[in-house]
């Protein structure tokens, strides 16, 4: 009897080569869409001075309860928390910001460099209801700028996100808001609570709880009835410094020619935010889980975590969501070989292996057939693989040192010298229109 299969844990996905690689007509492109997303980050973030940091996946639970907030969904319902062998409560990180700020405080970085710009990439864990674009293990690419008050750096960061998403050809809209600060938010909270209490009967059960714990979150509840109540909620009233910060941010964004929408309902799901918040929301292709990146300012977080008064701002993007969009933009498919070599007999097989080795050493992708079948069937296989050229290697080719490369799209035949295959193929690629 076969042993029972052991499936992956729900909400935790395998990334297979079929997910990793782009399907593109261009055989020169050997980049997967995950690589494309990561590479664009690696290329773009340093242009703004961000350097990569890596923090552990496991942290003390207190970091997140204190940093993100005990009443947030993430901390109250979604963390993977357990006791370590010594009894310490630890959690798998549900996000990266608290960890990065902990590292910043722990290593007294502010004493070495007053302004730090860090970026990071890695898996995050939240026990959420699984759906398309929402997983229990997912990957974030994010960045944090610590030490600057803004608002110019806020605008710089939003412009960076804008640049990165545009480089990936993601269709999105940038939403921007301000949540005020410790000065003006408590007053607004009280005002909002009064309003929500008066409408409690129209709100869902969850929002009824939120009135007392986290009333601002009612503003982005997805329940249509709650949305109706939210639409009539009093607008945020900022204190003078927060108003100025917001006005200057908008001015900077305009100067940098970043397109954005002011979205008063953009309240975010983590408690550490002050003033600027922003989200890039996909305008097509993602359905319910359409926020590809979100972030904002958190001027009180370093102090909350035992550090000094270090202001900070950052964002994180969901790599799986970006990948879905990049793939949908018609950029799926496997790496296609430049040349498919089909040997007809045993002597030719070893020669084919050698030729493929030489091509790969020269940076050209090559596939050899390991199956014995007719020349016609081999051509069909070359076609399925999406090879640019195919070469059938028989006794005659071996003896004469000459062979024909068949261009699969056009059917054109090009003669090459086998002992100079690399040079011949290179020359051919340069002379053909698609590679100019
Ligand atoms: P967040 O909005 O919770 O913010 O997550 C950022 C992004 O991670 C989301 O916009 C989404 O693309 C992705 N994401 C979140 N949860 C899931 C999930 N279950 N499955 C797939 N993707 C998901 C933060 O995490 C903050 N740390 C961002 C930040 C950085 N704020 C300041 N600095």
Total beta-strand segments: 16
- Report helical residue fraction: 25-40%
Please tell me how large the radius of gyration is.
Answer: 28 Å
Read across the widest sheet, the strand sequence of neighbours is 1-5-6-11-10-9-7-8
Strand content: 15-25%
The helix/strand class is alpha+beta
Which molecules are bound besides the chains? histidyl-adenosine monophosphate
Coarse shape: elongated
Oligomeric status of the shown chains?
A: single chain
Question: How is the main sheet built?
Answer: 8 strands, mixed
Uncertain residue segments: 23-30
Query: Averaging pLDDT over every residue, what do you get?
Result: 90
Gap between N and C termini: 58 Å
Description:
This protein is an alpha+beta fold. 38% of the residues lie in helices and 20% in strands. The protein contains 17 helices and 16 strands. Strands 1-5-6-11-10-9-7-8 form an eight-stranded mixed β-sheet, sandwiched between helices. The longest helix is centred in the middle third of the chain and has 16 residues. The N and C termini lie far apart (58 Å).
Which helices and strands occur, and which strands form pairs?
Elements: H1 17-20, H2 33-44, E1 51-52, E2 58-60, H3 61-68, H4 73-78, E3 80-83, E4 89-92, H5 97-106, H6 109-112, E5 116-125, E6 137-146, H7 152-167, E7 172-178, H8 185-198, H9 205-213, H10 224-231, H11 240-255, E8 261-262, E9 276-282, E10 291-297, H12 301-304, E11 312-318, H13 319-328, E12 339-343, H14 346-361, E13 366-368, H15 375-385, E14 389-393, H16 395-400, E15 402-407, E16 413-417, H17 421-431
Parallel strand pairs: 1-5, 7-8, 12-13, 12-14
Antiparallel strand pairs: 2-4, 3-4, 5-6, 6-11, 7-9, 9-10, 10-11, 14-15, 15-16
Helix pairs in contact: 7-11
The chain binds histidyl-adenosine monophosphate.
């Amino acid at each position: 009897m076969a042993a029972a299969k052991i499936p992956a844990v729900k909400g935790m996905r395998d990334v297979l080569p079929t997910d990793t690689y782009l399907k593109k007509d261009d055989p020169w492109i050997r980049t997967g869409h995950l690589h494309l997303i990561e590479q664009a980050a690696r290329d773009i973030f340093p242009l703004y001075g961000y350097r990569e940091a890596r923090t552990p996946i496991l942290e003390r639970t207190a970091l997140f309860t204190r940093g993100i907030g005990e009443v947030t969904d993430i901390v109250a319902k979604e963390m993977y928390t357990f006791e370590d062998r010594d009894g310490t409560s630890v959690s798998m990180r549900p996000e990266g910001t608290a960890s990065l700020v902990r590292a910043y405080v722990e290593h007294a970085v502010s004493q070495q460099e007053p302004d730090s710009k860090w970026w990071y990439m890695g898996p995050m864990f939240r026990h959420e209801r699984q759906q398309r674009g929402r997983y229990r293990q997912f990957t974030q690419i994010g960045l944090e700028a610590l030490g600057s008050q803004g608002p110019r750096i806020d605008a710089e960061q939003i412009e960076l996100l804008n640049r990165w998403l545009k480089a990936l050809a993601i269709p999105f809209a940038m939403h921007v808001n301000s949540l005020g600060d410790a000065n003006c938010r408590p007053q607004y909270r009280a005002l909002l609570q009064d309003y929500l209490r008066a409408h409690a009967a129209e709100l869902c059960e969850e929002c009824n709880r939120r009135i007392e714990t986290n009333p601002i979150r009612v503003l982005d509840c997805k329940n249509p009835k709650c949305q109706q109540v939210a639409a009539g909620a009093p607008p945020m009233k900022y204190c003078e410094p927060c108003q100025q910060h917001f006005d200057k941010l908008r001015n900077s964004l305009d100067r940098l020619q970043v397109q954005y929408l002011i979205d008063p309902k953009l309240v975010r799901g983590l408690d550490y935010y002050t003033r600027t918040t922003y989200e890039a929301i996909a305008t097509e292709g993602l359905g319910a889980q359409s926020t590809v990146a979100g972030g904002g300012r958190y001027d009180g977080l370093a102090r909350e975590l035992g550090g000094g008064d270090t202001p900070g701002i950052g964002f994180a993007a969901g790599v799986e969501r970006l990948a879905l969009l990049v793939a949908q933009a018609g950029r799926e498919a496997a790496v296609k070989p430049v040349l498919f070599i089909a040997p007809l007999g045993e002597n030719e097989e070893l020669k084919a292996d050698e030729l493929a080795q030489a091509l790969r050493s020269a940076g050209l992708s090559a596939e050899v057939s390991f199956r014995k079948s007719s020349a016609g069937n081999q051509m069909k296989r070359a076609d399925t693989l999406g090879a640019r050229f195919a070469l059938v290697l028989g006794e005659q080719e071996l003896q004469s040192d000459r062979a024909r490369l068949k261009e699969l799209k056009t059917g054109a035949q090009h003669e090459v010298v086998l002992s100079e295959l690399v040079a011949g193929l290179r020359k051919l690629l340069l002379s053909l229109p698609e590679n100019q």
